[in-house]
Specification:
alpha/beta, Rossmann fold, GMP Synthetase, Chain A, domain 3, 9 helices, globular
């Protein structure tokens, strides 16, 4: 049987549910997910292969007007994903009207790309819905799927549709691959997510992670990583009184990394201040 494949970019505003969706599709926590927006900073591939069809999903940063070097790089990553994709899935939220930046993007892409609308967050109480699927189809003249990425509902219908859109060509990746991200990449994501989880509003999104050492062994792996902050005042926030906060971050990250790697690990974390790194393109790419 001839093989088919399709590359799909996920497009949506911050916190629309792109990362949750890609994790649900591949069946593993690859992308960092959090209720705060802008957890995704770079493009991450999720690969779904079934029978003779391979679907390659690109999880992208949330669409927004860029302010500063960090945001500009994020939008460059997004534009690269859109250019590479055969099809674009545009995520809308059932309980929120599409912002102008999304409707403008749909209009701009309409003539150049195959587009599909995903009405996400279908698990929200129907009384809180502000979007009507039938009206959206009429408005945009595009296929639409109602899904809940969080509850893993409606996704099978989307997959079936995308498989039919796939074109005959060799697989780009091995059949058992779920992502092109390395263990190091995912560990960085997990640590950064736990920093945001445990610090809530105390620290902005100017947090990076650098893996200093990564020793993977059969019996026990050892990882040492630095949490990068932008100002001296943020260092104490991450460490916490008596080191309690960074220890909570470390323990939570260990649980996720153990599940990923399948072996016990030791994780050493420390905080490094790099003044205004978010204004330096080279450092942004290193700390992403």
């Amino acid at each position: 049987m001839a093989t088919k494949s399709l590359t799909i970019a996920l497009l949506g505003v911050p916190n629309a549910g792109k990362s949750t969706l890609i994790n649900a599709i591949v069946g593993q926590s690859l992308a960092a997910v959090h209720h705060k927006p802008q957890m995704t900073r770079r493009n991450l591939l999720g690969i779904h292969t079934k029978n003779n069809t391979q679907l390659i999903f690109i999880d992208t940063p949330g669409l927004h007007k860029p302010e500063g070097v960090l945001n500009e790089i994020m939008m460059q990553n997004l534009n690269e994903a859109l250019a590479e994709a055969d099809l674009v899935c545009v995520l809308l939220e059932a309980d929120r009207k599409p912002p102008a930046i999304i409707t403008d993007a749909i209009s701009r892409l309409h003539d150049d790309k195959k587009l599909v609308l995903l009405l996400n967050k279908a698990d929200v109480n129907s009384k809180d819905w502000v979007l009507d699927p039938k009206k959206l189809i009429t408005q945009f003249q595009l296929p639409l799927f109602v899904v809940s990425a969080l509850k893993n509902k409606g996704i099978d219908g989307l997959i079936d549709y995308l498989q039919k859109e796939a074109v005959e060509q060799p697989f780009f990746y091995n059949e058992d691959d779920l992502t092109t991200a390395t263990c190091r990449d995912l560990v960085k994501e997990y640590i950064r997510q736990e920093v945001m989880e445990h610090l809530h509003q105390e620290i902005p999104y100017h947090v990076g992670v650098v893996i200093d050492s990564f020793e993977e062994k059969e019996k026990k792996s050892a990882i040492k990583a630095a949490i990068i902050v932008n100002r001296d005042s943020q260092k104490g926030m991450v460490i916490g009184k008596g080191g309690k906060t960074i220890d909570k971050i470390r323990k939570a990250a260990i649980l996720r990394i153990k599940e990923l790697m399948g072996t016990p690990i030791t994780l050493s974390l420390y905080v490094k201040v790099d003044q205004n790194w978010i204004k330096n393109g080279t450092k942004i790419k290193e700390y992403f």
